[in-house]
Amino acid sequence: MLWADYNNLDVIAAGGAFYMIAASHHFMGMPVLRSDDMVNWTLLTRIYRRLDLDPKYDTPGQAYQAGTWAPAIRYQDGRFWVYVTTPTEGLIMTSAADAAGPWDPWTVVMRVAGWEDPCPFWDDVPNAGGDGPNGRKAYLVRSQTGAGPLFVQQLSWDGKTLIGPTTMVANGPTLEGPKFLKRNGYYYIFAPEGGIDAGYQVVLRSTNILGPYVSKTILERGSTNTNGPHQGSWIDLPSGESWFYHFQQNGGWGRIAHLEPAQWGADDWPKVGVDLDGNGIGEPVARPKKPNVGTTFPITVPQSSDEFDGGALGVQWLWNHNPDDTSWSLTARPGWLRLSARPLAAKGGTSGAGAGVPFVEDSLVFAYDTLVQLAMGQVASAVTNLDTTGIVDGQRAGITLFGQAYGWIGVVGAGGQVTVRANINGAYTQGPAVAAKTVFLKASMSTTSQISFAYSNDGVTFTPLGGSLTVGRTWFEGIKFGLFTYNLSTATAGGVADFDFFHYTHDGPHP
Question: Domains plus CATH for the chain?
Fold first, then answer.
């Protein structure tokens, strides 16, 4: 449905449209997308552009794999609600009357480490002793770091306070990402099991929200090529159709989004996909027909290219830490994006999953103001035009495919001269001196998740430089296209990089 890393996606229907959010981890910040037909999507906004829960989010290298993990979005009482956890700061929530914003500042519901994947639910049972209308209760289901068990706890009706004890309702192998749904008197918890790469989708069902629950597997890889089909959202349409969103881990792109036909069985158990092998468990459908939403809509894709000629960056862009708005500008040189170089953050850190992130000199991992966006499309490339007149000795600037393993092509200032250089995960390949004021730079990604780079003097004929690198998912995220500039950690801040545009092309459908 989308060949891009909208990982841990959650989708709802509200007001005749569909809204999707996804995890953004250490990138700032969580996307909100909108669709009229469940298939064609545009980026609407981002719920936040900085996380001030901890100073570590100010510095690259200190919060990779931390930040906002798997979120949930719901529509209740005329408002949109989003719940999410960070691995160490705890459970946070925000709400908005309009999905386009403004979104309220984060409310810290519970400052606690080790929780993950929360989802709220406002029940319709009256006189239940709750603080909602007619004594109704709200609840929260969640997992915990390490994936499982699942817990349910009462939530205040305003969504800001947890009430009373927790009840463990289920356990299983890597059981996480729970989503509540209620139908015909049954409470359902949709949840993935088995891990990102090889997991499957289960549904838990009970007539009591606190259980006991019965578990049933409803979607697996089976004989298909879609590994790990799980963790997503169930949608019932007015047309009578039902659909299920899920992700699939796929190389360096991360967790790409799928949409499966679904239905309710006569026994009130949900079914997803097609049971190709007859074992009672659905398997993914390669190319289902589009959902029947009553009419047709034009093809749209999330935004990618940017001419840098407006008053704001495109909503597709993400910073790799809390942005410093003094170090970039769209107005210093109208029609260009200016990034001001700063020394690398010379401090190692720890990722959100506990692994060390040791400092390495001249590593993009520790560069401030690295501006990135999701890789989109199975075959994709991006081209920028970099004006090198503001480059100083010791400065680096260019285009990147960024992750824990990364590559870039750009320019380096040394001895009063500016030369082209490729850096493939720390291995350098030197190119020629820049012959003109500007140089065109290109980053590409192939069907095998292989990244490569090239440069050009005219923007037409490109010369490859630096070889290639096959990349995978890193820090829970897929590889990302981006722009950057930095100085070595021992240098002083100085130099600017001016980018004229960012032109992105891919093999997916286009308007």
Answer: 12-31+40-218 (2.115.10.20), 318-506 (2.60.120.200)
